[in-house]
Write a structure and sequence with these properties.
It contains ten helices and twelve strands. It is α/β, with parallel strands linked by helices.
Length: 291
Amino acid sequence: MELQQLRYFVAVAETGKFTTAARDLHVAQPSVSKQVRKLETELGAVLLERRKAGILLTDAGAILLPWAKRVLADLDGARSEVAGLATLERGRLSVGATPSLSTVLLPRVLAAFHAEHPGVTLNVVEAGSRDLVDHLAAGDLDLALVILPVPREELFETTPLIREELVLAVAKKHPLARRKTVKVSELRGVPLVMFRDGYDLRSATITACEQAGFHPTFAIEGAEMDGVLRMAAAGVGVAVVPSMVVERGGRLVAVRIAQPTLSRSVGVAFRRDRHHSRAADAFVARLRAFI
């Protein structure tokens, strides 16, 4: 099995067509087809089902794809580490962050890091914590700012950074906007704007309500952070969000949640089996300076 074969296989699987993969790889289409067939022969399994409408992964292909992506990501990481990262004059760094951190903290950290190391190309993935953990496990990220504890802890090295208080974000004209605090039990029957699956804020809110003896009422669900804040500000419902995303003097009022108070621990996570690049360590050091 050759790395070139894996790279060609991943390109075809992700684009769905041999011609598109060949174009993206800057090689002739017959070369891509030949290498994929060699890979199938070596593995003794058909990886791609060839149809007129495009390419579909077989069961064997679906099993191989995440492994192939991890191998290629590790190889790219090794090359990047060796090729001049000692001085941070060049390189790549892929960072994942939850929407609350991407909105408030991350922009300042990225700006400072880029000013210090302009040769390092930055890639940012914004997603819910559970989705970020999946990206990190797959090798798509060098590090991720996630909610602790993470699932599959044995795969990751984690370090706590901050503890975020969760508050109730309500429109200024909402009856609860005049309150300084609100009990979780008082949210019974109050329409909530709810995040999509994959956000820990969704599970944290539902769990808190169920522990208070009721299932929450959803005004709407399936939104991302920006959509949740906008819909709450428009009066569609209220939302449980990190305090840092509610701007003072903005369209929303942050009401503290009591009995019990809600909070979450945010930390940085690395894959335990991968070496930290100097760029990753420098980024974390810069991040700590802003906390």
